[in-house]
Amino acid sequence: MAPTPKPAHFTLDKAIRSNILALQPYRCARDDYDEGILLDANENALGHALPPPTTNPDEGAFDDLSLHRYPSPLHLDLKQQICAFRNVPSPTNIFLGVGSDEAIDLLFRIACIPGKDRVLVCPPTYGMYSVCAQINDVEVVKLNLDVEGGAFRPKVDEINATLSAAAKSPNPIKLTFLCSPGNPTGTSIPLDDIRAVLANPDYTGLVIVDEAYVDFGPEGSSAIRLLVEEGWSNLVVLQTLSKGFGLAAIRLGLAFSSPEIIQVLNNIKAPYNISTPTAALAKRALSPSGLTLFRANLSTLIANRSTLSTALLALPSILQILGAPHANFVLAQVGGKDGKPDNVKAQKVYEKMAREDKVVVRFRGNEVGCEACLRITVGTKEECEAVVEKLAKLLEE
Ligand SMILES: Cc1ncc(COP(=O)(O)O)c(C=O)c1O
Question: Where is coiled-coil annotated (predicted)?
Answer without folding.
Answer: none
